[in-house]
């Protein structure tokens, strides 16, 4: 019975651990998950749907408007009663038109209207709506690119945090080994007790650094899940992402990675250009108030006094309207639209300058990160070799313990700087792609 209980406990424990194990994602898998789950992207997609619906509303102005109405009226007003009677084709000379009886009228009307020309307002409105929808689509692309970058940054931050843990754990193991050596030498009377205490203090500091590194990893994984849009509902984490190997850094840095003319691919810039074009149409819409408006109309009526016998009639025609004077309303609207256009153009120019700066900064950051990665890779190798030499000398009584502890600290610091440089390099690559408007492709 005890064996059965023990087996059950082991099985349940294994099941719990299996559930706690996070699902490891590659960078591409993480990006795909974020594109499916992130609420910012879903919000931008709904804005596109709203913009397209607005375009359909603008298109409605080019179609005839047809309405059907049904009404019932009763009156003993002489004029109203007379008109109802005429519409029903039931005129009778014997009726008392001064004191008519209550007259009922059931009317069915079909009314059609069509704007043939309105000074270009409808055309400009439709063009502005189409440009607005295109600008919104470019805004979606911008949100998508930003999301891809944030996922990439969070992904590589987890890799950096893991490397920090690895460096801290290696430091703990190495410091513990140094404490053992110092303890043995102390028992032999070869070192002072202060040297042993120094080694134990450094071991405690290494353990403290390991705790901080593990906490930083937990925090970076929380940020990662939040960027993906899954929160704590899905237990996922980032894969290795290239941190597990010391691959050579691609030569050349940012130089030659992308020509400057690729700046036109930036979706924010394309959206701003569409916005300027849309505001230009608003100037035309405002100016349409000074142009004639031409409309066509037609209606068909059925009138009855008893809901059985109906008399039909129709009317049709065209109308032309010209706003001769509106108290300078149109002039003010045109001036307002032109001022808004000038401001929008300045915003576009400001965005162009900002993007140029961002691209230049991204290139410089990538060059710096590449140089740091190359340098720190050599520094790690040198620090590890120096530590080994110092450790051998200390074991033979040719070096002080403080020298060995300093060498251990130098190795840990070099490994952490290399991990940070590698993460910064990979993030800088993603930042340059975003600055140049490069879209992530599966």
Summarize the model shown:
This protein is an alpha+beta fold.
Describe the structure in your own words.
The protein has 442 residues and is α+β, with helices and mostly antiparallel strands. Helices cover 65% and strands 12% of the residues. The chain has 9 helices and 6 strands. It has helices spanning 2-20, 27-37, 39-59, 78-87, 121-187, 193-228, 267-287, 329-395, 401-435, and strands spanning 23-25, 65-75, 103-117, 236-238, 293-304, 311-321. A 4-stranded antiparallel beta sheet has the order 2-3-5-6. The chain has a two-stranded parallel ribbon with strand order 1-4. Strand 5 (293-304) and strand 6 (311-321) form a beta hairpin. It is elongated.
Lay out the secondary structure:
Layout: H1 2-20, E1 23-25, H2 27-37, H3 39-59, E2 65-75, H4 78-87, E3 103-117, H5 121-187, H6 193-228, E4 236-238, H7 267-287, E5 293-304, E6 311-321, H8 329-395, H9 401-435
Parallel strand pairs: 1-4
Antiparallel strand pairs: 2-3, 3-5, 5-6
Features:
442 residues, alpha+beta, 9 helices, 65% helix, disordered N terminus
- Overall shape: it is elongated
| Mean of pLDDT | 83
If strands are numbered along the chain, what order do they take across the biggest sheet?
2-3-5-6
Main beta sheet strand tally, sense and closure? 4 strands, antiparallel
Beta-strand portion reads 5-15%
């Amino acid at each position: 019975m005890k064996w059965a209980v023990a087996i059950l406990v082991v099985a349940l424990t294994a099941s719990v651990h299996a559930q706690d194990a996070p699902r490891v994602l590659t960078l591409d898998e993480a990006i795909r998950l974020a594109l499916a789950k992130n609420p910012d992207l879903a919000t931008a997609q709904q804005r596109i749907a709203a913009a397209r619906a607005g375009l359909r509303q603008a298109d409605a102005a080019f179609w005839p408007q047809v309405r059907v109405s049904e009404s019932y009226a009763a009156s003993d007003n002489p004029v109203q009663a007379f008109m109802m009677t005429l519409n029903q084709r039931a005129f009778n000379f014997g009726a008392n038109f001064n004191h008519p009886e209550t007259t009922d009228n059931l009317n069915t009307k079909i009314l059609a209207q069509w704007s043939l020309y309105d000074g270009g307002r409808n055309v400009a409105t439709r063009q502005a709506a189409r440009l607005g929808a295109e600008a919104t689509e470019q805004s979606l692309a911008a949100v998508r690119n930003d999301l891809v970058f944030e996922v990439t940054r969070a992904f590589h931050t987890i890799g950096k945090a893991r490397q920090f843990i690895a460096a801290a754990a290696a430091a703990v193991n190495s410091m513990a080994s140094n404490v053992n050596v110092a303890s043995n030498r102390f028992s032999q009377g070869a070192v002072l007790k202060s040297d042993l205490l120094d080694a134990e203090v450094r071991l405690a500091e290494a353990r403290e650094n390991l705790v901080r590194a593990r906490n930083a990893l937990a925090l970076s994984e929380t940020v990662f899940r939040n960027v993906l849009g899954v929160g704590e509902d899905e237990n996922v984490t980032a894969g290795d992402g290239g941190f597990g190997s010391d691959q050579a850094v691609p030569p050349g840095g940012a130089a030659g990675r992308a020509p400057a003319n690729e700046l036109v691919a930036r979706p924010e810039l394309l959206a701003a250009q569409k916005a300027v074009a849309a505001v230009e149409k608003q100037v035309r819409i405002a100016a349409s108030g000074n142009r004639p408006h031409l409309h066509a109309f037609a209606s068909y009526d059925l009138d009855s006094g008893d809901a059985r016998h109906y008399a039909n009639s129709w009317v049709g025609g065209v109308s032309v309207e010209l706003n001769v004077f509106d108290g300078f309303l149109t002039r003010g609207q045109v001036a307002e639209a032109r001022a808004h256009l000038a401001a929008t153009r300045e915003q576009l120019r400001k965005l162009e300058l900002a993007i140029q700066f961002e691209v230049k900064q991204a290139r410089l950051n990538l060059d710096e990160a590449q140089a740091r990665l190359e340098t720190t890779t050599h520094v790690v190798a040198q620090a590890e070799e120096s530590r080994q030499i110092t450790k051998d000398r200390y074991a033979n009584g040719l070096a002080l313990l403080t020298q060995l502890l300093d060498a251990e600290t130098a190795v840990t610091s070099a490994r952490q700087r290399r991990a940070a440089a590698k993460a910064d390099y990979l993030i800088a690559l993603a930042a340059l792609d975003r600055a140049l408007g490069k879209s992530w492709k599966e």
